[in-house]
Write a structure and sequence with these properties.
alpha/beta, FAD/NAD(P)-binding domain, Enolase-like, domain 1, 3 domains, 11 helices, binds flavin-adenine dinucleotide
Length: 485
Amino acid sequence: MATEKQVTFVIVGGGIAGVTCAEQIASQFPSDEVCLLTASSLVKMVTNFKQVSKTLEEFDVEEQPSRFLEEKYPNLKVIQSAVSLLRAKEHLLQTENGQTFYYKKLCLCSGARPKLLTQDNPHVLGIRDTDSAQEFQKRLSKAKRIVVVGNGGIALELVYEVQGCQVIWAIKDKAIGNTFFDAGAAQFLIPSLESDKKDRSLPCKRARYTTDKTGAGHSGASGELGSALGPDWHGGIDLRGAQQNSSGVHTEYECEVEKIYTQQEFLQSKRSTEKFELGIWPVYVQLTNGKIYGCDFIVSATGVVPNTDPFLHGNNIELAADHGLVVDDHMRTSEQDVYAAGDVCTAGWEPRAHWQQMRLWTQARQMGWYAARCMAADVLEEPIELDFCFELFTHITKFFNYKVVLLGKFNAQGLGQDYELLLRCTKGQEYVKVVLTGGRMMGAILIGDTDLEETFENLILNQMDLSRYGEELLDPNIDIEDYFD
Ligand code: FAD
């Protein structure tokens, strides 16, 4: 039944950004109604939040039924229905189930979806939410060979975790993990990839990441709009293929997918003479380096596209080159009273010297929280400054069972030729890289249990001139913490 409702604050999206924003605004305005509209039946809640240092943070994430939120905040109502239309001039939103909402302030936190190599090919999968991860697992259990395309965090984890199935990994860069590391760090990690997968103890990225075990955790009516998985998304699922033995990873560097053939297309193509060599497979991938591989299916892990479709038609919303909603330093889009946070948005402000946007869990939480504070400041007509969390990029994660800490311009992003590197590497134990400009620390990559993160965070933030320390900065015999106390 069509209904209409006036609400002070409306937030769209039940992922980390939307839920954090809704919680913050609901607690700051307890006598105003707050509505969270989400396509997914479960919401993602941050628990056990811990500020590890000035900018490094850790937290657990729990997927919960929406009533948990409503019980915690009596003025917060969660409506499970996808938003199908925004008319920003009228401050109006419509949902797929026919409800209309008039808002005073709106925050869009609708996340992003995988950028697929091709749409509607049943042999090409993307991994985004609980449903797609389960579909992946089902298909993998019958697979002997898969092709993974992409070089970001999801691809890195996949190729490491999959067992009992040969993985052909196609990357466009010269080194693995280009989004997160340089070639040196990649070299450090490669032996882990080549080690016998059976010998690995399965790593856990975070102390706890829980999902609903009842099977209720499926996308909403619109089917494809669940929230993004995050750290340890593979923790509860068995990533095992149909082969008895681990069949290894073969990496094809500096190439992209040129063409995908169905079995029938391939057998009818000029390349069918190769079929005896290649064997009969459900799908074939031709790479730009000329090689062709048959496989059971292809995983497209080539990045994400922000979910903006319902918000664009008839509105004056500025989009960035990566198709995100451009936001200013108050998380405002180009439409009045419409804010955005998390994977759906693109930071349009001049970033601080050591920060860059990456579509990651921590930034989704920080942006959701800051967007709520900005909406509140606007309502109360109070000034607000860009939050301190945007001073320095920090990310803690685990790759190939190593702790990985990324700080600031860890890959010398945007520094041109104007930088020097200091390196320390102990095979199988740790890899430390420091990026310096004019003797000042701009960023660092710390792999392994280096214990250097807090000291380096301080050195980046305070921009102390380190020229006189030279290579001593990474001398393992010097207790660097004492040094800079
Ligand atoms: P999402 O979590 O995607 O939430 C979007 C919400 O909007 C969902 O609830 C969805 O249902 C809803 N929605 C969408 N469209 C509509 C609509 N029209 N109407 C109503 N609701 C709508 N990050 C890390 O930091 N570390 C990792 O190790 C890591 N691993 C990852 C592994 C995988 C497989 C994936 C997919 C992502 C990973 N990420 C990781 C990224 C991280 O999960 C995302 O950056 C983060 O979850 C984004 O949060 P969000 O709230 O912006 O969006």
